[in-house]
Amino acid sequence: MTSTEEFIELSERRSAHNYHPLPVVIHEAQGAWVTDVEGRRYLDCLSGYSSLNFGHGNPKIIGAAQEQLTRLTLTSRAFFHDQFAAFAAGLGDLTGKDMVLPMNTGAEAVETAIKVARKWGYEVKGVPDGQANIIVMEDNFHGRTTTIVSFSTDPDAHDGFGPYTPGFKIVKYGSIEAIREAVDANTVAVMLEPIQGEAGVLVPPDGYLTQVRELCSAENILMIADEIQSGLGRTGDTFACDHEHVVPDIYVLGKALGGGVVPVSAITANEDVLGVIKPGQHGSTFGGNPLACAVANAVVELLRTGEYQERARELGAVLHDRLRALIGKGVVTVRGRGLWAGVDIDPSLATGRQVSVALMRLGVLAKDTHGSTVRLAPPIVVSEEDLLWAVDRLAEALAEFAK
Ligand SMILES: *Cc1c(COP(=O)(O)O)cnc(C)c1O
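Above are the sequence and the pyridoxal-5'-phosphate SMILES. Below is the predicted complex in structure-token form.
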């Protein structure tokens, strides 16, 4: 089997159609560039939905993984292993929190945050058993488990998977008034993405995160920030909450924490919150395994100097400048922060999918979301020259549709 068509035909025939991939079959990658099975090269402007913030084959991350791979990969948490202490302390320090609880996928970390918030509600806040509620946002994306899709407002994610888990109140994103109205005596948490990624890189109004923080503190409610996609350098800060100097009670992390190598997720919080979990009450066989910890330790090390954050901020300014210049030339609006942009395409010209396919033919990999948005999130290691080249390809694609 050698051709793109053969790989796609067999993949589509023998796998569930839970994704709608672009017709490209990737064989290898380095830095910001991938190569397909026919030898064509593409600039990766998706980065595995921000899992590859530090680039494909990052030498520090791959080096740590290779060293760990041949020495010790799994113990289960029945025992300690020698990568775990550095992981807990390092990720705790990066987030300024006392404690971490490692899982694997993002959805598992979100589930963990929900469970911890409920338990904290019953044991610390004194909410009557079984009565806790968590305030979540319209157009959220927190993963795909049955509980998480219970409070999704996206019909594709939600419909047909009931019965649904109760205990969530959905409010409008970006409105502090909406949260204030939803709060009651049994509210244990407000959970949000500081920038909504899947919804199309929606940035809330300035001051919103600060207002949420103040409201949560005043009402004795936990603020949970799902930074799975927005965190770890993407927006030009370590966390998107940093933009407003806001510190949530619980950070939810994933994606880039695994360095593009293995799934690694975690929540971090102070002891007054995460201390409610006792032995046997929550866990995961692979959570915090030696390979995962070695990779995450390399990621945390990369973020310690701030150079990736600064690079995302500087290149992000260039990216947003150039994208804004396309407004009126096939682009309706541009949103985002740092090296992360949601570009709304003029629907009279083309769909986001059509633009993504056209970009692919021109050597740029990006993905549409919600019909008319194209999301751009190249690895932070991308060169400025390559980044500008990608924006030129977008301009070229849009010009073709305008003909
Ligand atoms: C991707 C994502 C998740 C889910 O992570 P998985 O690893 O796919 O389970 C949750 N929240 C946000 C904000 C995400 O972007």
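The chain has two domains: 4-57+307-402, 72-304.
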